[in-house]
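Why predict the complex rather than its parts? Because the way molecules touch one another can change local conformation, and only a joint prediction can capture that. The input here totals 347 residues.
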Amino acid sequence: MINHLITQKNWQSQLSEAITSVDELFALLNIDPAAHNFYVPKHFRLRVPKAFVSKMRVGDLNDPLLKQVLPDAKEGVAVTGFVSDPLGEEGQNPIDGLLHKYESRVLLTLTGACAIHCRYCFRQHFDYQTNLPTIQKQTAILEYIQANPEINEVILSGGDPLSLSNRRLFDWLGKLEALPQLTTIRLHTRLPIVIPDRLDQPLIERLSQSRCQIVMVIHCNHPNEIDEATKLALKRTQAAGVTLLNQAVLLKGINDSVEIQSSLSKHLFSSNVLPYYLHLLDKVAGAAHFDIDERQACELYWQLLAKLPGYLMPKLVKELPNRPFKVPVDIYKYGEALQYNSKSVLV
Ligand code: SF4
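Output of the joint prediction:
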């Protein structure tokens, strides 16, 4: 781990100083660039904040955090079934910046910006330029929500909604809270993991004052992503009344073992975060090398059931185009072939 990378700088400075050069990243990690065959697609370049790099192991090309952000030559290989819009989202936005896939919830892509570029991201080809809710479109979005009274929850997504300034974020929060039909505002964000300082005092205070229930769904894939600074920031946020959940993606060679998944759930819980979803990979072009066979995922899940109490078990799900919900993976489909300690299941 590289402790000297952890600075006292505010989160905006950390965001703007994120590493965008493979050479710089390898120099920090003391890795020979000749050891890796990389390819950087123009539409989705390397981007990783130093606070996240500080959690990687020096000199280890196989570090599970490094592998999530390091562009790989395999991304340039076309694989059948892996497409640019795996969830068919492009047909589900009645207004630019608003996706309406689920009956009672809408998702706002508030920004195309992310602090980090995860190589498996299903939105890496998404056309953010035409889908950003500009100030002009904000009125149309609020009117759309009012015209659909069954909507009671708004999900702020992106990109990463916490890459917006507090000023812009608070403006959205205020306008949404003014709609009486809304009970819940949810934020989907990876920023607390990659720059824990993003959970600054003004943000935590503002969230604690909301008249709506605030749910923050963080995105953490590996226990090494949770260091002391991350844990403290998360605990402060939860203590302010924010419900904290985690969604992870099951990634080949990164977190596809029972030990790592079990450790991830325990690390999350010790940070006052409950595991929520464990996603099968969305089949996005360029990410096939992270994919895990559904049968292997089920085997892993059964073993995890035998290890963890129910409240630490994330739901194993996949997203399919044109389904108004995340689809639970049928873990009984391969049941007869699985080995697990049945005495421990469902404790
Ligand atoms: S933070 Fe989320 S939206 Fe951004 S690149 Fe990673 S997975 Fe995609």
